[in-house]
Amino acid sequence: MPAALRLASPTMSEEKETTNGRPDGRSPGELRSVRFRNHIAPHATGSTLIEWGDTRVICAVCMDDNVPRWMKEQKVEGGWLTAEYSMLPYSTVSRKARDISRGKMDGRSTEIQRLIGRSLRSAIDLKKIGSRTVWIDCDVLQADGGTRTASITGAFVALRLAVARLMAEGLIKEDPIINSVAAVSVGIVNGLACCDLPYVEDVAASVDMNLVMTGKGEFIEVQGTGEEATFTPDELTAMLALGKSGIEQLLQLQEAAVSAG
Length: 261
Description:
The chain is an alpha+beta fold. The chain has a single domain (4-260), classed as 2-Layer Sandwich (Ribosomal Protein S5, domain 2). The chain is 32% helix and 28% strand. It is built from seven helices and ten strands. Residues 1-19 have low confidence and may be disordered.
């Protein structure tokens, strides 16, 4: 049975009664509701559906008993991990054309799937998986901000589930996971530093930032920019602190989701 883990958030009535300067009434450091539904893709080695607020992403891991040609040519030991990211046509209010219909992948999707790959490669010792390629597919079913951070956070759960299966089947002898990884968005909205921006806040933010961190509190990636605005060192410090706190909560949820199997 799929596992369903949720981080509690205020009810609608509670949200209406709070006045924290955010449209949904959350406090600046409060995450939206987060849920994992494991084994959503039966043919994948490991998979989960991450439901983060109104954002929905299926993250699935498949194994290929081969490695890229460049690894063979350079005689690199171990395996490889790569990712693909896609927003389905019905994931946004206005239908999003498939990349295949345009004949090429858009730049945003290319950037995000490279980010997912970089992030997850920091979580695994590729020498311990043998001559295999780990494929991570992240398909956005519904987008309401934070699709890249949801993809990374969900992908790590799917990867952990895939590794557990391979070890149970005796295909991997030693656990290759060396780090936990999660990601969250932060930003400055109406002068307020906030964590976990839904779309309505994302488009209004004067500063938008995505943080990817390990369970050891180390940064993998910091993507931040002012949207026709600047930000101060104090605002940067506030955003980093909110992001670190949010990621710590996500790491706990990931662990609970993996433990639930």
